[in-house]
Amino acid sequence: MMEHAYALVTLAAEGAAPAQPPSDPLAGFGIIIPMVLILIVFFWLSSRTQKKQERERQQMLDSIKPRDKVVTIGGMYGRVVEVKDDAIVLRVDENKDVRVAVLRSAVSRKVSDEDEKKPA
User: Fold this and answer.
1) pLDDT tens digit string along 23-41?
2) How far apart are CA 73 and CA 70, in angstroms?
C-alpha cells in the first residue's frame, strides 16, 4: 500500500512540475513578425495615399491659367490674371483692379462657379 501511495505522490509531483521554456530561441518572434508586417503594410499604404495627393495637387497647380478663380492658403480669393514660372498674379478686387503676386505653391485650390454659388 505504501508503494502505491509513493507512486501516486511521484506522479503528482511530475505533473505539477513547472513547464519548461521552449528550447527554440526564435519561438518568441512568431508573434512579432506579423506585427512588423502589418506596420510595413500600413506605412506603405499611407505613403501611396500621400504621393497620390501630392500628384493631384501638382496637376492642379500646373493647370492654372488666366481667368481661373483660386483661393490661396491664406484664404484670399482672386482671379488669375497672369501666370509666370513660379508665381501667379491675382486680381483680388475687380472694382479697384487690385493685383497681388503670389507663389504658385500658395494656391490652395481652384474655385468653380458652383462653389461660389453655394451658401457658406
Assistant:
1) 666 666 778 888 899 999 9
2) 10
* Set of cell numbers at residue 79: 482671379
User: In terms of CATH architecture, what is 65-117?
Assistant: Roll (2.30)
User: One-letter amino acid identity for 85?
Assistant: D
Confidence (pTM)? 0.60
Cell 509666370 sits on residue: 84
Beta bridge partners of 55: none
Question: Taking the domains of the chain in order of start, what are their residue ranges?
Answer: 30-63, 65-117
CA separation for the pair 73, 58 (Å, rounded): 15
Which burial class, exposed, middle or buried, applies to 111 when counting CB atoms under 10 A from its CB (0-12, 13-18, 19+)?
A: middle
